[in-house]
Amino acid sequence: DTAVSQTPKYLVTQMGNDKSIKCEQNLGHDTMYWYKQDSKKFLKIMFSYNNKELIINETVPNRFSPKSPDKAHLNLHINSLELGDSAVYFCASSQESGFQETQYFGPGTRLLVL
Amino acid sequence: GQSLEQPSEVTAVEGAIVQINCTYQTSGFYGLSWYQQHDGGAPTFLSYNALDGLEETGRFSSFLSRSDSYGYLLLQELQMKDSASYFCAVTSGNTPLVFGKGTRLSVIA
Fold first, then answer.
1. Distance of CA B69 to the CA centre of its chain
2. Average model confidence (pLDDT) for chain A?
3. Which of A77, A59, A62, A60 is nearest to A23 (CA)?
């Protein structure tokens, strides 16, 4: 069984489009995250949710909107996609909201904006 | 804010030992983690140090010196499959993980 899964794995789209990435974890964890990894492999947190509540919202354009329907799911919706949004987006989860907890990452979604 | 420094690239020979250093600046330091990421893959957790000293897990060990704001990951008996990027990351209180820029390790025959 996959612990943290994301769909789609690859996403190629045109500038200006709106797209969503879905994430699900079956680990029973309370906290989920979205990270962006750029072409230089710099990994930066975007959002964190604990039990469906937003607890971290780093400096991210408001075109990015996370949604957590339940604590096992954290989806990322991106409006008006721009070239600079091209990156790999990783979902992750951890047991509790104490950030010293080990994080388990999904396989990533490779987004290419043309 | 928080910042971490680690070498961008390291090359080592199969069977050898390699050490990847990480220095950090942060307030309210809680712990230092290490993650491994193969090309095209996801980061996977390797180790976590909250206290000074060496933690050993198989061929991998991680060290922390809180007074020096310094840690390292030690990989022994290097194998070709160890070629990957290695990230140190700090946790400070209830702030999320802040990752270093990663060290690309190339293991050569």
1. 13
2. 91
3. A77
